[in-house]
Amino acid sequence: MGLPEKSAVLFGVSPLKSEGDYEMKPLEGRKRRLGDRHDGFLVRNLDPMGMLIPYIMRSKSDSWVLFEDRIDITHTQEFLHTMRKGEIPKLTLYHIVFAAIVRTYSQVPELNRFIQRNHIYARNEMKGSMVVMKGMQRDSERTTIMPRFEMDATLKEVVEEIEALANPIDRTKKVAEDENRNDFDKLELALSLIPGWLISLVFSLLKLLDRYGLIPKALTALSPFHSSFFITNMGSIGMQPVYHHIYEFGTISIFGAIGSKETVHELDRHGNLRRKTYLNMKFVVDERICDGFIYAIGFKHIKSGISKPEQLLERPKEVIHDRIDRR
Fold it and tell me: Crossing angle of helices 93-107/74-85, nearest 10°?
C-alpha cells in the first residue's frame, strides 16, 4: 500500500513515481503469503522457545540485551591510510564498521529480523540508519540518512551508498533552510508544525498500523525506526560509546555505538612493547529475534570485518539466506 499522492504532498514528501520506487527485494524470489508483511516475511520454523519468547517478553524494553567489545584496529588504521591514498579516498572507520555489519548480515541473516504483534519476521531489505550532524556547535542541528545496501555489497559500494546521501547535506544551514534537505527532514519539519495533540494522535495511529504491517511503504522508507540497524559514531564528538536504547516504535532490533579510538602501549607474547589502537563498541539488541548463539556468531563476523577490512573489498563467496519455512 503506497502513500497517496495528496497525503505525500501534505507531509512534504515526494510522492511515489511508481510502486517500484520503494519496493523491497524479496528473499530468494519469495512471494508474499498470508501472514507476511510488505517489509518482511513471517518466520514459520521457530522452535518452541522461539515461539513463546515474544509472548513472555512483550516489548523491546523487556527484552534488550547489552553487548560490548574492544577491537584491535591497529591493522585497520594502516589499511585506512592505504585506501585513502588510492582506491577509496573518502574512506573512514565509520564506513568500515557499516561494511562489516552489512557483510555480517549476509552471513548471519537471522540478525535482520524484527518483531511485531508477537511474531518474528525476516526483513526483506538491508537498510542502515545514521545521524549526520550539520555542525559541532551547541545549536547545531542534525539529520538522519538511511542508506540501503545489496546483501553482497563491497566496502567501496557501502562507502558510495553512504556518501551519495551524506554529500548533498549543507552543513552550514539549518534543516529548514537547506535546499538539499532529504525527505525525512521534510517529514520532520511538517510534523513539527502541527499541534502536539495531533502529533500524539498521528503516532498512535502509526503504531497501530505498524502492528499489522499497514504503514504505507513511502513512510517506512523514510523512517530510521524501520531499519536493519542503527549505528551512531560517538567518537566523532570525542566520546566513548553508550548503550543506546532500541526504539519501541518501528521495527529496528539492533542499535550500535562506536567510540573514540584508544591508543595504548602493551607487551606482546614475546615481551616486546607494541603500540596498539583499539575501538570500543557497544550494542543494544532485541534478544527475541534470535538466540545468543546466533548473536555470538554475528559479533565475531563484525569483529573480523573491522579488524581485517581487506576481506570487505571483495564480494562474499556466498550470501546466506534466512531459513524461515517449515521443512
Answer: 110
Name the 3-class secondary structure at 254: strand
pLDDT in tens, 148-163: 999 999 999 999 999 9
Residue 124 DSSP label: S
Place of cell 552543513: 171
**Which pLDDT does position 29 carry in this prediction?**
66
CB 187 within 8 A of CB 220: no
Supply φ then ψ for residue 156, to 5 degrees: -65, -40
d(CA 107, CA 118): 25
**pLDDT tens digits, residue range 290-300?**
999 999 999 99
Average pLDDT of the residues in 186-201: 89
Residues 6+ apart with CB under 8 A from 16: 2, 3, 5, 8, 22, 217, 218
Global pTM exceeds 0.70: yes
E-strand stretches of the chain: 40-42, 64-72, 113-116, 119-123, 128-133, 142-145, 229-233, 254-267, 273-286
